[in-house]
Amino acid sequence: MKIAKVINNNVVSVMKNDTELVIMGRGIAFQKRPGDQVDQDRIEKVFTLNNKQTSENFQLLLREVPIDLMVIVEEVIHFAQNQLGKKLNENIYVSLTDHINFAIERHEQGVEIKNALLWEIKQLYKEEFLIGLKALDKINHKFQLSLPEDEAGFIAIHLINAEMNEDVVNTMNITKFMQQIINIVKYHFNVEFDEDSLNYFRFITHLKFFVQRIMKGTHYENDDDFLYIMIKQKHKEAANCTEKIKSYIKKEYNHELTNEEMLYLTLHIERVVNR
């Protein structure tokens, strides 16, 4: 493989079948120029980013980021994809690397930023938060730091962004919105949820995409009046709770829920409360 660009002493890019690969390895570009052969023995990581803008941003970032940090970030992303069973949006290579690099810089300057949604993240995104804790442990151990638990929450948010193809601000807003709906259900039924149960997991998963659709202003197309009327009669208290949620969403987000949305929400509420 011939070098297309030298990014820094440890990073080069090459073209392979019209796709740009970013190759990382200690000293891989030492005294090298475009057109020179890549030293295969020095290759540590190879990144393939299909989006041109993401690839360019990633290469710019790699000029500033230590190779050891990039290796950890790549391991975290690979581990997260295996644990979550999902392909993450490739922009996470840029966003997560940039965030962790900046978090380390802040920490070294004595500046700590509190994660205002840490409690919600722990409750709503347990898997992502556990991955965040593992990543934090790796970072603290490798760089002899003591980054706080808040950072595990921020790492989790970046993973959730990459799962849902959202940006950080939208994910934070979605998280707040979800917590409000959960609170309405808890107070309506005066219950505490079993957060380790399958039904709670299903409820949270439904809410995640339900809220995402509302914030984008999209609806279920099918408005099944007959089925919703049947479900309302069968699960009256869950349907009453759904009406409260409908009023809240209308007031706060000016979004009118369809009967189809009410139907699924009622079923999930009934299941999480009574099973």
Give a verbal description of the structure.
The radius of gyration is 23 Å and the shape is elongated. It has 11 helices and 4 strands, in the order ββββααααααααααα. It folds into 3 domains: 1-49, Roll (Transcription Regulation, Sacy, Chain A), CATH 2.30.24.10; 65-165, Orthogonal Bundle (PTS-regulatory domain, PRD); 169-274, PRD domain (PTS-regulatory domain, PRD, Orthogonal Bundle), CATH 1.10.1790. β1 and β2 (11-16) form a beta hairpin. The chain has helices at residues 52-62, 67-84, 92-108, 118-124, 126-143, 150-164, 168-189, 198-216, 225-234, 236-253, 259-274, and strands at 3-8, 11-16, 19-24, 45-48. The N and C termini lie far apart (59 Å). By secondary structure, it is α+β, with helices and mostly antiparallel strands.
Number of domains: 3
- CATH H level of the largest domain: which superfamily? PRD domain
Oligomer: single chain
Largest sheet: 4 strands, antiparallel
Low-confidence stretches: none
Overall pLDDT metric: 88
Through-space gap between termini: 59 Å
CATH architecture of the largest domain: Orthogonal Bundle
What's the helix-strand series?
EEEEHHHHHHHHHHH
Structural class: alpha+beta
Radius of gyration: 23 Å
- So what's the CATH class of the largest domain? Mainly Alpha
Number of strands: 4
Q: Which outline best applies? A: elongated
- Count of helical stretches: 11
Q: How much strand?
A: 5-15%
User: What fraction, in percent, of the residue positions are helical?
Assistant: 55-70%
Q: What spatial order of strands do you see in the largest sheet? A: 1-2-3-4
